[in-house]
Amino acid sequence: MRLVPDYRSEFFEKMLGKGDLLANYSRSVFKKTGRKEVTHAVWQENVGHFQINHWFNLRPHPSFGSPLDGSTTIYEIVANDFDLASQKRVMESWIWGEPGNGDHP
């Protein structure tokens, strides 16, 4: 979880939002079956001024904090200066690699 930068309560008190789902799928499964089997995915959702990032089968980017995996009873909330556009760029590069390298599904 992280705090959204420049929090102003009038913008977020009643906000509930879902971010983009970014995913990779198995091309070999797609070629054999025509079905896209997701191998990795990231997405986020906002509840008020908190943001929850979900990482499926992919270790989280360190800028977004440690995973809530039950290994400890205390977790820290991470604050960073990402706006939504820069957050999306970080997540895209984390799951697909650097832009323009042909790794996008």
TrEMBL record:
It comes from the Bacteria. This is Blr0164 protein. It comes from Bradyrhizobium diazoefficiens (strain JCM 10833 / BCRC 13528 / IAM 13628 / NBRC 14792 / USDA 110).
